[in-house]
Amino acid sequence: MSEKTIALVTGANKGIGYEIAAGLGALGWSVGVGARDERRRTDAVAKLRAAGTDAFGVPLDVTDDESVTAAAQLIEERAGRLDVLVNNAGVAGDWPEAPTTIDLETVRRLVETNVIGVIRVTNAMLPLLRRSAHPRIVNQSSHVASLTLQTTPGVGLGISGAYSPTKTYLNAVTIQYAKELSGTNILINSACPGYVATDLNGFRGTRTPEQGALIAIRLAALPDDGPTGQLFDDDGVVPW
Fold it and tell me: How open is the CA angle 67-62-211, to the nearest 5 degrees?
């Protein structure tokens, strides 16, 4: 069994996910690049390896049961355990997106990836995480998920009929996992990367993917007495 910390980052072939993988690799960890697109996954692994990261590809479609089961089996065979899971994969709808006119299929698609996909992957990886001495789970959330910020006058988060609510849902799920796992050594938290320029928002963001990855990397490397069941950005705790 490898002595290295073993991490899996979903949606790690580009953007914030790639930078999270790079950051974890810089810690000396072995990092699984979870991605459904074979070419992009292969290219990302090659780029990470060229930079010195111990990276390996993990074919993974978070919306597909068989794909997720196969990914867990791959990590089982490779390392026998998983130390860190970063649920980064996600999709977005249009922005702004009025709930009165939204296509219901868009809502279903976003919930399937942003919420159900996280539950599917987390549950599949939990047996491997339970074998770790210092297991961590990080769920990629957003400031737009905060009901407090959404209802604070002057905070310009716009209208989002699907994406924002799926991240709020994800935050709620994270809390429930934290409650269930409170008697274990598994720490689970949500991360807000900020308004990062990625293809998710048409590269309109004001932060770089490297900057957006920092909070997830920090939460992935929490000490054993670190927090659990909370939402964080670079400045600390974000209100629900």
Answer: 130
Count CB atoms within 10 A of the CB of residue 13. Answer: 25
pLDDT tens digits along 149-177: 999 998 878 899 999 999 999 999 999 99
Q: How many CB atoms lie within 10 A of CB 174?
A: 24
Exposed / middle / buried, residue 102 (Cβ in 10 Å: 0-12, 13-18, 19+): middle
**Which pLDDT belongs to residue 196?**
76
Q: Could you tell me how many residues make up the chain?
A: 240
pTM of the model: 0.94
Q: How far apart are CA 166 and CA 168, in angstroms?
A: 5
In this prediction, residue 158 carries a pLDDT of 87
For 10, 66, 78, 81, 213, the CA distances from 6, given in Å and listed in that order, are 13, 22, 10, 8, 18
Q: What letter would DSSP give residue 240?
A: -
Q: Is 132 helix (H, G, I), strand (E, B) or coil?
A: coil
Alpha helices, H only, the chain: 15-26, 38-50, 65-79, 104-111, 117-129, 147-150, 163-180, 209-220
Among 18, 163, 169, 195, the active-site one is 163
Active-site annotation holds for 163: yes
Rounded Cα distance, 57 and 36, in Å: 10
pLDDT grade for 195, boundaries at 50, 70 and 90: confident
